[in-house]
Write a structure and sequence with these properties.
heterodimer; A: mainly beta; four-stranded antiparallel beta sheet; about 50% strand; B: three-stranded antiparallel beta sheet; 9 strands; about 0% helix
């Protein structure tokens, strides 16, 4: 059973960079046909897709975050990572990593448990 | 910034049926498959339905999905207290190359 686990700081100061890593176990991040994505959920609000990456490095980003986000992959470690720059209180959310299929058929079939990141000084 | 619209809440008594609508546009639901997710309180979302009407292994057939034009529907029959959760639809928006989630619907078992 594929497992995903988020890791990273739970507290980030305003204007700094939020960095999280998702470690994939019991499966390969290099599996063809699957994308690896980040989704976030502010407290009491809905889900927002942030972006996804293919093992080859191809990325798709939410236009609302495009100037601040970078998603990268490290196939040797079976991990992918999120960087969100210049954060503010509005970026306080539970961040979840997930695996999805491709484009038009896209759905997220495996999810991490999520990690709460609070932006505060 | 969801572009898929869902009713905020639906409710029914145990054993009854509820349906949740998900309304989109020609560039998202109208052009791509729809999936549905269940989010129990305090947990990560879980895939319930994919490719409009398919259920992953382990999902009971009480859950069903359908799509027509630019709208999709999730049905839950034989409602149980354990079904109380937030439900989200999701799909790919081919014109903006983004994955979009619905606004979410809270299901309450009366």
């Amino acid at each position: 059973q594929l497992q995903l686990q988020e890791s990273g700081p739970g507290l980030v100061k305003p204007s700094e960079t939020l960095s999280l890593t998702c470690t994939v176990s019991s499966g390969s991040i290099s599996s063809t046909g699957y994308y690896w994505g980040w989704i976030r959920q502010p407290p009491g609000k809905g889900l927002e897709w942030m972006g996804s990456i293919y093992y080859s490095g191809t990325t798709y980003y939410n236009p609302s975050l495009k100037s601040r986000i970078t998603i990268s992959v490290d196939t040797s470690k079976n991990q992918f990572s999120l960087e969100l720059r210049s954060v503010s209180a509005a970026d306080t959310a539970v961040y979840v990593c997930g695996r999805s299929t491709g484009d038009g058929t896209a759905y997220f079939d495996y999810w991490g448990q999520g990690t709460l990141v609070t932006v505060s000084s | 910034q969801s572009v898929l619209t869902q009713p905020p809440s639906v409710s029914a008594a145990p054993g009854q049926k509820v349906t949740i609508s998900c309304s989109g546009s020609s560039s998202d639901i109208g052009n791509c498959f729809v999936s549905w997710y269940q989010q129990l309180p305090g947990t990560a979302p879980k895939l319930l339905i994919y490719e409009n009407n398919k259920r992953p292994s382990g999902i009971p057939d009480r859950f069903s999905g359908s799509k027509s034009g630019t709208s999709a529907t999730l049905g839950i029959t034989g409602l149980q207290t354990g079904d109380e959760a937030e439900y989200y639809c999701g799909t790919w928006d081919s014109s903006r190359t983004v994955y979009v989630f619905g606004t979410g619907t809270k299901v309450t078992v009366l």
